[in-house]
Amino acid sequence: xxxxxxxxxxxxxxxxxxxxxxxxxxxxxxxxxxxxxxxxxxxxxxxxxxxxxxxxxxxxxxx
Length: 63
Description:
Number of domains: 1
Order of helices and strands: EHEE
Strand content: 25-35%
Strand order of the largest sheet: 1-2-3
């Protein structure tokens, strides 16, 4: 992600998933993060951290 000034946005904080979620639900929970521009120092809050894509199911294969 890039800032309006063209600088690179660095992640400075990531949301923790709610404690009431199961381990499986935590894997698919869409977190947000706060980012700071490495060039101008501007901070952008609540930016998407996870893309919302679920993990690919690993199929059982035989050797």
